[in-house]
Design brief:
Helix content: 25-40%
Number of helices: 17
Distance between the termini: 66 Å
Strand content: 15-25%
Structural class: alpha/beta
Mean pLDDT: 94
Shape: elongated
Low-confidence stretches: none
Length: 540
Amino acid sequence: MSTLRIAVAQLNCVVGDLDHNAALILDAARRAAEQGADLLLTPELALCGYPPEDLLLRPDFHRACARQIARIAAGAPAGLALLVGHPHAQDDRLYNAASLIRGGQVEATYRKMRLPNYEVFDEERYFDAGSEACVVEVAGVKVGVNICADVWEAGAPEAAAAAGAQVLAVLNASPYHLNKPLTREQVVGERVTATGLPVVYCNLVGGQDELVFDGASFALDRSARLVWRAPHCREHFALVELRDGDVVPQPLPPQSTVEQDCYEALVLGVRDYLGKNGFRSALIGLSGGVDSALTLCIAVDALGADRVRAVMMPSPYTAQMSLDDSRALVKNLGVQYDEVSIAPAMATFEQMLKPLFGDAAADTTEENVQARARMIMLMALSNKTGAIVLTTGNKSEMAVGYSTLYGDLAGGFAVIKDIFKTFVYRLCDWRNSVRYDIPDNILTRAPSAELRPDQTDQDSLPPYAVLDAIIEAYMERDESPRDIIARGFAEADVHRVIGLLRRNEYKRRQAPPGVRVTERGFGKDWRYPITNRYRDEGAA
């Protein structure tokens, strides 16, 4: 077998920005040619970005993509073969495709066979499935082309092997969730074992709405051994060489922790959400608690301290410790910081509402007024400065409705909406191991919304370790209350948590988007009806 040099371009594409994406591909092609590559491998749907969603329903979008493929063919360096992911319209059908471009023309087009329609994927809504293998010869080597879900089950790789492929080149837009990089390598390893073919796997990188594509492209040799891996959560260009029928090993980067991977995904998600949508800066309401501290650190690491502003809005119930800890945090991070008391607003609302409330006792209504007063302040600053408000609620709170509609739930982007409270602490510990910025008091004190005297979260919720485990079982693994109770959780806790989760769907529908980092987040892959009378097995 001849030697084949494959350039892998781990690109950060922008959905719908065809000019920009085509330019990225052509820049990578020129770089590949300069470094002596024979083949350039790009991510899935790199031309249009992933997922393009209902843009794919527009015929003019298809025509624009076709024009850009012609532009790439005309502008690509002579002698280089390019595998470019793009939507391909043909005979009133639309395919998720990859075309081999060489010598100024499209030589072959592969149509993705396996169309995922689970979790965050809706490809059956848009695409028709291909049925034929595609094997192209580059530098004397027969390269089989697959796209993402093709390699998550048997079928497409075997078809390429049967058609004579000697190596698989796989274009991917595989979104991140916890432990996903390792899962990808294990699944692709099963295809290697089944076919005997080495694999070069190119993944998309970048944030797109609530999804983060983490890159982490890799290559496996014929023994399913990992022999090359690209960096996590950043653009990268590399050459992978196939010699004597197998991938030549390269030094592997150090193995990262799940906390590091998750934190980097959150940073990338924030940076790209703001950058790709034209927001120059961010606003965060600090509370002195762990959630807002983590959100602030992520924002600073994503944008830089000069583009982040923190506002502390104490009430008469705010502890001095909360003020002291917030001041220490912003000093460590170097961000602009303001303190504005909401006590005058609380008094004004109390006076305005008294004729309507009469002698009714104070309850959560007055607590919610505080949260909404704070949001009025933040949204006013947002309107005046153009900064986007980053909310600070976590997945545990999102699940059970422990948040105020049009108060702390409101904002432009919910950074940690898919992070359980227990994992928030793990991320803070990891961040402090890199640079100690979060004061110990924030990490050791009992969590509290500080909306009434001596309040703690556990006054109205089970301990977070219990709460998170029940939510994860019911929401991420679809276990019934009966299943969860059988695993040893208190029946009262299970019924209470699931009841709260079900009743608060209406709140979640009105929450801002945020970064998805678990296998199932409250977003694209959670589609429960608000009006819903189904009773689970074992429900109270």
